[in-house]
Amino acid sequence: LVFRLISREWPMTISLPDLGDSFAVQPLDAGNSYSARAKGSVFGARPGVYLLTAKGKRAPDPLPDRIPGVPYYLGMREFVCPATPDFPTSVVVRNHASFNNQGPVTIKATVASAEEPSEVKLNIVGGESFRMKRVHGYEYAATISPELSPFSGSRFTVSVSTKGTTLTFPHDSPLASARGEAYDYQVMMPNWPVSLFDPPNDLDHVAVSRSGEAQNKKPELVEGMAQAAHAYQLGFPRNRMADDFTASLYVGDRVADRGQLILSAKALHLRIKGVSSPTVMRVTLVEKDGAAWSFKVFASTEWKDIIIPLGKFSKAESVMLPQGYPGSWAYWLPSPEGRTSIHISDVERIQFSLRSVDFGTIASIEPSQATVAIDTAELVF
Questions:
Q1: pTM for this model (two decimals)
Q2: Pairing relationship of beta strands 279-287 and 347-354 according to DSSP bridges
Q3: What local confidence, expressed as pLDDT, does residue 214 receive?
């Protein structure tokens, strides 16, 4: 049996009746000197191409040029294993948006390195350090008691030790754009609001109608209601009212992080205002199966807090964003049949929309005036 492996060394199990459970592992690719003997069908595998030989059998020496018994020509050393790329050690933190204080805080990270790390640690800034255990493959995790974390926010780093060298992430990330002093996480009380839209942090992740076109540039944030707060400007990108202009944001992780407690959410809290004139906006919550629930709100020229009970949302169409097709082709997504009420635990997107049909009752409004500043969108309990 000849096989090729491209990975760093991991235990491997091969169970074949004719091979047995104590077979020899011999390298075939040039420059590879690693060999092993399986125990219980398990052996340590390294990148390379190998010949497996059952116990009591002996591979010919030298090996033939072609594999015997194959009806077409197949060279014994025709299999090639590319050299292991010399990539730098990298860490990607699989962090939650927030954690409940009623359960443990488990932080996960993907640790990719040429050699298996001797130690991976999670270090709370100003606090304790915890060993991160390998869950499988390149995935590591550490569990922290929620009592060790304040209710506001905590910061942490991940240190990776390999061959006597320790790197600390995100500071030592090979990507300049990913470097920083620490990662963040929050521990929340069960009845704290679930933020569905935080303009300063979410601006780069918003998808808008025809988001690939130059005229739909990322809007600048404007002053929010509170001091030092910022708001998102939702406005038509051209000097005419399109049938629809929508901004969409994925929020499925934020909803899922609250677990079963999200079922106690009662309403959506919005803080909005019309930038230069009274404006109408639709807010839509979209579920995993495409079911969408919408409510039309009126934005005056003063900041206003609006509480929308979840039971007030009506079944509606949503917009498929990011948009991969020209015009309005494959733009609208109808809700599935048979649904009569929102399943808040399945919500994964929030959408804000301006639609020309909603401005018929507002006399002589110009497209440039139909702009809404969105300061806050959150689920409240």
A1: 0.69
A2: antiparallel
A3: 54
